[in-house]
Task: inverse folding
């Protein structure tokens, strides 16, 4: 079934010049980029996007990190793209994410409180709808 997902290239990915490489992997897999923008995240967008993590020890470092520079938001479309992009992204922790994945090939730990793991991808159709409305009008 055709789905849409919201992906974010986090500030570490943009700053390291990996935007093209990450989008290339999504396109090479066969997904269509239907929306694409670079933004400086507003505080209320991050509060909404990460509402489920509020109160966790990494919440404030995460919000600070996501505010530290521009990020790229995109909507990808394709059959089972939600699961498919998360598979491309790899596990949350970049040090141990499987080689072949975005995080496994391009990410690592940097000795900081937050995992700078390059990308975000929605985890369900409900999250995708909610997150697309946060980042796109
Ligand atoms: P993501 O899955 O996109 O959304 C939550 C983010 O919080 C996650 O990516 C990481 O960047 C960060 N994160 C999740 N778990 C931890 C953790 N245990 N320690 C530090 N950062 C984390």
Result:
């Amino acid at each position: 079934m055709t789905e849409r997902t919201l992906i974010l290239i986090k500030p570490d990915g943009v700053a390291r010049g990996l935007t093209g490489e990450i989008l290339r992997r999504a396109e090479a897999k066969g997904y269509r980029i239907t929306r694409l923008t670079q933004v400086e995240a507003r505080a209320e967008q991050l509060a909404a996007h990460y509402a489920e993590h509020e109160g966790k020890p990494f919440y404030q470092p995460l919000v600070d990190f996501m505010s530290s520079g521009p990020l790229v938001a995109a909507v990808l479309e394709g059959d089972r793209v939600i699961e498919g992009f998360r598979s491309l992204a790899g596990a949350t922790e970049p040090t141990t994410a499987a080689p072949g994945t975005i995080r496994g090939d391009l990410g690592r730990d940097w000795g900081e409180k937050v995992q700078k793991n390059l990308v975000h991808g929605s985890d369900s159709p409900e999250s995708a709808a909610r997150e697309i409305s946060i980042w796109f009008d």
